Amino acid sequence: MKPMFSPAEIRKDFPIFSKVMRGDNRLVYLDSGATSQKPFQVLDAERKFYETSNAAVHRGAHLLAEEASIAYEGARQVLAYFLNAELDEVIFTKSATESINALAYSFGNSDANSRFSLKPGDRIVVSELEHHANLIPWQQLAKRTGAELAWFSIGSDGRLDQSEIDSLINEKTKIVAITHQSNVLGTIVPLEKIVKHAHSVGAVVVLDACQSAPHFAIDVKTLGVDFLAFSGHKALGPTGIGILWGRSEYLNQMEPFLTGGSMIETATMTEAKWAQSPKRFEAGVPNMAQAIGFAAAINYLNNLGMENVAKHEKDLTAYALDKFKDLDKVKLIGPKDNVDRGSVISFTIEGIHPHDVGQVLDQYGVAVRTGHHCAWPLMRKLGLGGTTRASFYVYNDEADVDVLIHSILKAQKYFKV
Amino acid sequence: MKPMFSPAEIRKDFPIFSKVMRGDNRLVYLDSGATSQKPFQVLDAERKFYETSNAAVHRGAHLLAEEASIAYEGARQVLAYFLNAELDEVIFTKSATESINALAYSFGNSDANSRFSLKPGDRIVVSELEHHANLIPWQQLAKRTGAELAWFSIGSDGRLDQSEIDSLINEKTKIVAITHQSNVLGTIVPLEKIVKHAHSVGAVVVLDACQSAPHFAIDVKTLGVDFLAFSGHKALGPTGIGILWGRSEYLNQMEPFLTGGSMIETATMTEAKWAQSPKRFEAGVPNMAQAIGFAAAINYLNNLGMENVAKHEKDLTAYALDKFKDLDKVKLIGPKDNVDRGSVISFTIEGIHPHDVGQVLDQYGVAVRTGHHCAWPLMRKLGLGGTTRASFYVYNDEADVDVLIHSILKAQKYFKV
Amino acid sequence: MELDSLYQEVILDHYKHPLNKELKSQFTAQVHHVNPSCGDEITLNVTIENQIVTSVSWDGVGCSISQASTSIASDLMIGKNLDQALVIVESFSDLMSSKGTKTGDEEILEDGVALAGVSKFPARIKCALLGWMAFKDAAIQSSKN
Amino acid sequence: MELDSLYQEVILDHYKHPLNKELKSQFTAQVHHVNPSCGDEITLNVTIENQIVTSVSWDGVGCSISQASTSIASDLMIGKNLDQALVIVESFSDLMSSKGTKTGDEEILEDGVALAGVSKFPARIKCALLGWMAFKDAAIQSSKN
Ligand SMILES: Cc1ncc(COP(=O)(O)O)c(C=O)c1O
Ligand SMILES: Cc1ncc(COP(=O)(O)O)c(C=O)c1O
């Protein structure tokens, strides 16, 4: 194992931490669950591509096109290695949102006799934990195909209730789409039983890894899921890039989503034959610079070591959970113990609306997210209008948690609650 | 009108032109039709966003989120102004390919009683000039809905044949999707008659402006089309960003394409109501840095003046067309006069395959595109396996054309033809 | 502290003791508005008779800004004639988009000027406008009914 | 000049005078392959009897590299037994992915070693492999028939 890193050292790689925030405060960035900050290594990698090798990939015989293709396919290799996946299984999209929609449309585009097609009577299973990005595409696919949407509920502790798994995932079930880690509560969903169950009825499992892949090591072969999505921008990478991973035996049988240039084998005015994966799913001139920046981000994480990243966040979460215990009239939403939970802490403060909490925290340089976190059904289930959410990453340390706690006390004082 | 710019001065803004190419040659970049190079102003704008304001837009109460939102919406304003469009009509996508697919899926997702729905008997009209990106999405939409695909043919001069317009665009026609300028031949399609005809039968016009918007001034109100798409990377901007423009009265009636976070008004497990445009069509954390880089590119073009850009390219094309006349056994493919034609020159050389032409040119630092240019049906129609294509932009000058001509002669000598 | 320009005493008072925050069962129009980015919701009832706003009542969940602002708006509107009321809404919208450059006309906006500071916090403008937009919508609907 | 490492004399000869470039009407398998990125196409017929490749013929359009390479491949394969032929294809594939580090075994590849330089031009490797992959595909299909 690599030696543990120091967040203070890491922050030196991130230009944004030299910014002066409101009230002349330093930036205490606790909103990595929404998007992470970027080290200069990522910015440099993107810039270098533009400055030395920019050309449309796979399309030209010239030197720039060659170099661009090598750089772009090299980025794919980095991502494949990161996930322990095969090269042709890694598809670059613009975001996890696109990845999940791509899959949903791909299912929807299937011929009636394909194993991926859905019809009335079929079932798609999700959970109450889902971010809208892993709910609405399936909800709409169900609407379009006549399939039924069913879901795992959650308990008051914010854990998935798997007690009904037998009736929930049944022979009608074609797709189980589930989050690996809740972006609101930090709950990590144990997958083993779900995957086994889904496969035993012939369903495929789609994993929303937005909040997991950036934070702990992911091995698609061990997880046993069939598809997986996450975004670069939450993993130190650029905006405008995401990953769709899928088993190649599936991908090569599936209908494409976006059609256009570079994804065809042959085309006439009326017919088109699709290329093999990954090209089949990458129509148009791709987001090349972003793929290369994403790979630089993954290399940065690999250098830290994903075990170290996970341990660092675990320790920091333990520290924060402990500090929260001492706060009065502050309610932690979600798992209170540090088991199967990521470094996301949602809370409410009696008498202060989350939006107002966020505003006071901002005055102290603390950036958090407030509201329903694009998980409105979860909020309703919990009977909440919203929460304040602090989420940690590699550049955060205990001092950041201390500032958070201090600012919460200030907010309570300000609003006299 | 602004004073005319000097390509030599402009090249100083583009770091890639200091690259040393094969054979120790300077870069003669004649592949802007595939993707353009980027000035440092664009790279700086992206970097500055990441270094000072990076946060998820529209989602946080904190300072970074505020600044990110202002920057991102500011970028939208720049694009809206560039197109003479309204703010809520400009949607950021990842590319023109996504923009066109978004539209096609949006039509496909419509309720049966919507004016945007398609059914057997309805017709979609395209042309033989289309890039795969503006052909295959419509071809597949026709397949999925049972609508019929019909098309304008082209004459041997590479011009659109509008003689059959009355029978082609008839009462069954719902969509006319057409390119503004051919990426292969440079042909500019006169739109007035097509738009008038389409509107008279109640059809909407979708314009593929990939090869026009970067090269001459576009005014959506004057053009009268209903939807328009182009990519940032062909307009000096970053990869991973494109525009879908549409009339807001249509956009707000249409079904979304990608669903997920930030595009809903309300959501439950089983139902979702959509936000108004542009949010309705921008699910997920957007490609913020790319939008900002794109706006910087547009500002760069605005500073040059789009009239100047157009004039510069027109003059350069005239110069090149003239030089090509003197070449032996070199055949120009597409319009031979400089009327209604952009700065794209496709040609074949007797006895040398385009791929080999490209290879020899590369040895002299000349980057061109070879092959079918993602317009395979057009190639078949022209009876060609492929062409070599030189395409010009603001950084090219007559010296570049001279190197091209010189290299063509070298290729002929090398292959002894 | 910058924060004080946002959370004036008047606002915190309205937040803790909101006016007209109890839905009346009689109304000529009812609307339900949400702020999708934070999840705040409001239901607002108006009664407009002979072009006079005779009653505004509301209920909902939201932050101090949205609650105080709705309280202020409701109080302002009651008794105004419809045209006047819409002018006041315009004046408030204008203040909100002023990016901190305007202080607001106290003659027209009364307690509403306390919200002037919100215009410097772009993410909060929607909060401040929620009740006003709901009122405007309801008023227009009412005149159509 | 770098170009000369790509376009060896042998290649240009094969390009101008390709071998076996006329489809035989008799075959045990026929395949059609395309290179989607440049549009090159090839039809290739093989006859394999008693594990011996007795005939290879082809037609198609393509660049000098793809045409010469297919010509060389077809010439090499005729008369070989199937296993041998597939070993040769492997050896050629290996050479193509060598990024210029290998020169190829002339004993096995004969004129094929003239294509070694292609491995330094990533965009051209597919051109060089087109005929070989078509042959491999056809050979496998033929043995299944
Ligand atoms: C005419 C035309 N349409 C559409 C496209 C597709 O653009 P992109 O690949 O950026 O999505 C291109 C360029 O590749 C083009 O030239
Ligand atoms: C759990 C989860 N799923 C999906 C998404 C969507 O990711 P993106 O907005 O990058 O597409 C997010 C983040 O917004 C998330 O937290």
Write the layout of secondary structure elements.
The complex is a heterotetramer, with 2 copies of chain A (417 residues) and 2 copies of chain C (145 residues).
Chain A: H1 7-11, E1 28-29, H2 40-52, H3 63-83, E2 90-93, H4 96-108, E3 123-127, H5 136-145, E4 148-152, H6 165-168, E5 173-179, H7 192-200, E6 204-208, H8 220-223, E7 227-231, E8 242-246, H9 248-251, E9 264-267, E10 272-274, H10 288-304, H11 306-325, E11 330-333, E12 344-349, H12 354-363, E13 366-367, E14 369-371, H13 376-381, E15 387-391, H14 398-414
Parallel strand pairs in A: 1-13, 3-4, 3-5, 5-6, 6-7
Antiparallel strand pairs in A: 2-8, 7-8, 9-10, 11-12, 12-15, 14-15
Helix pairs in contact in A: 2-10, 3-10, 4-5, 10-11, 11-14, 12-14
Chain C: H1 2-6, H2 9-16, E1 29-35, E2 40-49, E3 52-61, H3 64-77, H4 82-96, H5 106-109, H6 122-144
Antiparallel strand pairs in C: 1-2, 2-3
The complex binds pyridoxal-5'-phosphate (2 copies).
Q: Can you tell me about this structure?
A:
The complex is a heterotetramer, with 2 copies of chain A (417 residues) and 2 copies of chain C (145 residues). Chain A has 14 helices and 15 strands. Chain A is an alpha/beta fold and 417 residues long. Chain A has 2 domains: 7-30 and 305-415, Aspartate Aminotransferase, domain 1 (Alpha-Beta Complex); 44-302, Aspartate Aminotransferase, domain 2, CATH 3.40.640.10. In chain A, the strands form 4 sheets. Chain A has a 7-stranded mixed β-sheet, sandwiched between helices. In chain A, strands 11-12-15-14 form a 4-stranded antiparallel β-sheet, with helices on one face. In chain A, strands 1-13 form a two-stranded parallel sheet. The longest helix of chain A is centred in the first third of the chain and has 21 residues, at 63-83. Chain A is globular, with a radius of gyration of 22 Å. Chain C has one domain (2-144): Sufe protein. Chain: A, CATH 3.90.1010.10. Chain C contains 6 helices and 3 strands, in the order H-H-E-E-E-H-H-H-H. Chain C has helices at residues 2-6, 9-16, 64-77, 82-96, 106-109, 122-144, and strands at residues 29-35, 40-49, 52-61. In chain C, helix 4 packs antiparallel against helix 6 (122-144). The longest helix of chain C has 23 residues, at 122-144. Chain C is globular, with a radius of gyration of 14 Å. The termini of chain C are far apart. The model of chain C has no long low-confidence stretch (mean pLDDT 94). The chains are: A alpha/beta (417), C alpha+beta (145). Chains in contact: A-B, A-C, A-D, B-C, B-D.
